[in-house]
Amino acid sequence: MAEIEAGTSNSTPQTSRKGEEKEKNSADPDLFSCLLQPFSADGDPNYVGIRRLLLHRKALSGSLRRKDWRCNGKGYVAYRNYIRRPRNWENLQTPNLSTPGNSGRWVSSPHPLSLVYEAESWSSSRDVRTGNVASSHRTSFSSSTSDSDRPRRKGAEPAYSFVGMHCIFDQSRASVTVLKFGHANSNLLAYGAADGTLTVCTVLEPPSVIKQLAGHSNEVTDFDFSSNNQYIASSSLDKTVRVWEISKGICIRVIYGVSSQLCIQFHPVNNNFFSAGNANKEITVFNFSTGRIISKTAFDSEVTSMDHDHTGQLIFCGDAQGSVYSVSMNSRTGALSRNHRDRTSSKHRSPVTTVQYRSFSLLARGPVLLTCTQDGSLSFFSVALEIQGYLTLRCSLKLSPRLHTIRVSFCPLLSLEKGEFIVAGSEDSNVYFYDLTRPRHTCVNKLQGHRFPVVSVAWNHGENLLASSDLYGTVIVWKRSKTS
After folding, report:
1. Whole-model pTM over 0.90
2. Radius of gyration of the chain from its Cα atoms, rounded to whole angstroms
């Protein structure tokens, strides 16, 4: 009997090992479900293959993230205590990692790279025994807030505190719908108004208006500076695109369209091209020298906002149904081809008011895209440039719905800051700063000075000045406090 019992006990681990090997060698059902998905006869096989591969990796990465979180040895209570920690929590206490009373506290890593990886404190899991980063994977989440949310702390975030107003421009007699600083220029500012005028000014002491550009017969929807800041291309609801020479203050070219022109961008590499999105569900590429159409591509709805990547090979645009597209563009020929589309999951689809690209983010460790819709939905995507601009949602934020077209912008990228900050106008006449990575208390600061809804915001190249405009036609330039 002893021999039989011994044989039985020895066979048990062998059976478990065989079961584990069988599980490892067995095919992944998620992969099979992706591979067996049918596709239409007119579909692109390459696109279908890439999509299946990404779906498989997405399912796999989700399970890995959950394993990483369990391996970290910390649960929800630890994370909650971490985000509620005092401002100088690290200096107040240095917990001993070996004590059992440390189970409900999020332990900061003593690793030399902790300051860098601390920016991903929400997205990365740490090995509390060794202090090394266990994984840099990020779990996407969403949050909701209102424009009237108070800042999370008594004081504002040190990097986004302001000393006051630098200057005010109140010459416009209509609402200022869009404003931008010049490319690689901290002092050149321009803004377009609902009466069809464009105003170019300088914020150098003393601030003054340089040129008043009049020619559009309806609202200016968008404009863009050329790379040398000598020209401006503007779009309008009067169905025209105009090119202006700033030094002379004259319009050197008018291009007539068949529908309202809603957004416009110069090519970042080849300034002989500029693209315009219109209400005819198209993006059209124009030749700057001749004004002729180079190419165009059609979409499912009106193209309301757009932006280029830093290489000029991709265009990211949003439409009136809340979808975001990535489009390839040939920098030499101007040819366009649609790549991917990210559809909104909301039942009530709303126009995209802002599409802004950034070449690097601390959280995504790569290029990112910020979008905003008129119903107050903010989305933060990571961009896969190697897969023709494929977008992956990293986090989202729901603000209160807007009656007007209100734009948002990335905040300056600061290595010492924890989080991903954006600045947005609001209909309660305030300018708000949000941290997209916080599930709660996302508002970290607000600026008060306008009397009417703030519809547009923009940073200058030096990132020390922030401009905001309202429906009354007032433009305020805020000066950021100096931080070490």
Report:
1. no
2. 26
